[in-house]
Amino acid sequence: MDSLILCDIQQGVMTLTFNRPERLNSFNDAMHRELAEHLTRAERDDEIRCLLLTGAGRAFCAGQDLNDRNVDPEAGPPDLGYSVENFYNPLVKRLARLGKPVIAAVNGVAAGAGATLALGCDIVIAARSASFVMAFSKLGLVPDCGGTWFLPRVAGRARALGLALLGEKLSSEQAERWGLIWQTVDDAELVDTTRTLAQHLATQPTYGLGLIKQALLAGEHNSLEQQLELERDYQRMAGRSADYREGVAAFLARRPAQFTGK
User: Fold this and answer.
1) What is the pLDDT of residue 69?
2) In a domain, 32, yes or no
3) Which DSSP string do the residues of the chain spell out, in sequence order?
4) Which of 28, 97, 153, 183 has most Cβ atoms within 10 angstroms of its Cβ?
5) Tell me: the pLDDT tens digits for 42-99?
6) Cα–Cα distance for residue pair 190/105, rounded to 1 Å
7) What global pTM score does this model have?
8) Whether the predicted pLDDT of 178 surpasses 90
9) Regarding predicted confidence, which is higher, 116 or 71?
10) In angstroms, what is the C-alpha Rg of the chain?
């Protein structure tokens, strides 16, 4: 059986490609388990310094495969909270905690949990033909995979409510104008643009980048006083890193820095 997640590791970048193109890369339990295994390697392998997520075929990810959660009229209602608790919530937490940059290369439709998963990545670059759809309301469901947390923070309350309640398709260009994603590029440029960015990030001070991620996430709920104290603590930690020593040495010697990610 073909892998449901294709994994490629080159030049410090782990590229994970959702590989159920016949189902628009929608998640089933087996796909979740494969993804979790790859994330364990990304967490533990110091040679991996950037994670890139994308999809095979014409979709990034269409969210949950409803064939796996079909409502049987002869049985009781399905427990949709099972998938959220055991798969989606751990996935969101792991990507947020990962001390390495996570890029989403959105190559086509990103719907439901596929859309909220993409928006939860650190940097999102989308093909011009790509789109985002908060499809939950069309099924009487609630945005998950971090959707109700990310949406108001990246889009603002008014746009978050409109997107979530109406479930209308949002073009990649509109998503960029609204500040939901970092960049929109022509379809033919998506692979090269995201690969170049990922390879660049893989050469940068990874430990410091991880601290930046954690600081910005903490800033979503900290008071100013708490955040200033956290910045002090993180700056102390960053200042003890090998990458800081190398960065200063390279600056003083007027040469390119050779960061190791530590």
Assistant:
1) 63
2) yes
3) ---SEEEEEETTEEEEEE--GGGTT-B-HHHHHHHHHHHHHHHH-TT--EEEEEESTTEEE-SB-GGGG---TTSPPP-HHHHIIIIIHHHHHHHHH-SS-EEEEE-SEEETHHHHHHHTSSEEEEETT-EEE-GGGGGT---TTTHHHHHHHHH-HHHHHHHHHH--EEEHHHHHHTTSSSEEE-GGGHHHHHHHHHHHHTTS-HHHHHHHHHHHHHTTT--HHHHHHHHHHHHHHHHTSHHHHHHHHHHHHTS-------
4) 28
5) 999 999 999 999 999 999 999 999 887 665 556 677 788 999 999 999 999 999 999 9
6) 7
7) 0.94
8) yes
9) 116
10) 19
The letter for the amino acid at 7 is C
Residue 5 in tokens: 């997640």
Q: Are 223 and 155 part of one and the same domain? A: no
Asked if residue 232 and residue 124 are part of one domain, the reply reads: no
What is the pLDDT confidence band of residue 6, given thresholds at 50, 70 and 90? very high
pLDDT tens-digit readout, 222-240:
999 999 999 999 999 999 9
199: Cα within 13 Å, side-chain hemisphere: 10
